[in-house]
Write a structure and sequence with these properties.
The protein has 246 residues and is mainly alpha-helical. It has helices at 2-16, 26-51, 55-101, 103-116, 121-132, 135-145, 156-173, 186-211, 216-242. It has one domain (2-239).
Length: 246
């Protein structure tokens, strides 16, 4: 009975155009851009601070990285979303053609999916017939469960680009803020930047776990460690090159 009710809901949503698919949200895009911008600029700050004693150079390098990173991340988000949309639309047209030209094969594929879900005998034939009797439900069923593809809206690419680009700016500013309050003390500014960045990364990891699944502490610590290790890679390079004679 529960399976029949679930199928009824699926078909009603498909017919009404309200079926929901798991997809990257604007929040996940914001987290992605924020995390990437923060780690990138932190690495640059640590690297440059190990090689120079001029705060101005640190600001110039960090701001240049901020601009380049935000534009690059936004462009990547746009082009990758466009590619996903084009791929989905291409497969959608192919699936429509196959439903017209080889309906028996497509019906068998629906039947095979339900069979893998545990349907048997008369119940298997009934659910298969109900799906293929509704072309819209049939098409969406095949896209989601045969091809494992999710629809990408027309305006999604631009929204993703703006959100990722803007969040990269926000993340990039986090490790730079302490230098406004340390009166030109590079060592102190760097130490505070590491602490602030670690706390921010931990908070991002915790929030990711809260909105998905997983341990809050494990996710937070994991993201903080990965980000700080990546940042300290910049410090090592800056130390090595900064110590070299000019």
């Amino acid at each position: 009975m529960a399976s029949k009710q679930k199928l009824d809901i699926l078909m009603r949503r498909a017919a009404a155009g309200t079926e929901r698919h798991a997809r990257p949200t604007l929040l996940s895009n914001f987290i992605l851009g924020c995390q990437d911008g923060l780690v990138n600029v932190l690495g640059i700050i640590l690297g440059v601070s190990a090689a120079t004693s001029e705060v101005r150079i640190i600001f110039v390098a960090a701001l240049a990285a901020l601009a380049a990173e935000s534009i690059s991340m936004g462009a990547v988000a746009y082009t990758s979303t466009i590619a996903r949309r084009n791929h989905y639309l291409r497969e959608l047209e192919r699936e429509k053609m196959e439903m017209r030209t080889v309906p028996k094969t497509e019906r068998r594929e629906v039947r095979d999916i339900f069979s893998r879900w545990g349907y048997r005998g008369r119940a298997l034939e009934d659910v298969t017939d109900r799906i293929v009797s509704n072309p819209k439900a049939w098409l969406e069923f095949m896209m989601a469960h045969e091809l494992d593809l999710e629809p990408v809206g027309r305006g999604t690419a631009w929204r993703s680009a703006w959100v990722v680009g803007a969040s990269a700016v926000v993340g990039s500013i986090v490790p730079l803020v302490p230098f406004f309050f340390t009166a030109g003390n590079i060592a102190l500014g760097t130490q505070v930047a590491v602490v602030v960045s670690g706390v921010a990364l931990f908070a991002i990891g915790v929030y990711e776990a809260k909105t998905t699944v997983g341990s809050l502490w494990k996710s937070g610590v994991q993201l903080a460690v990965i980000g700080l290790v990546a940042g300290f890679a910049g410090y090592i390079i800056g130390s090595l090159l900064g110590a070299a004679p000019v």
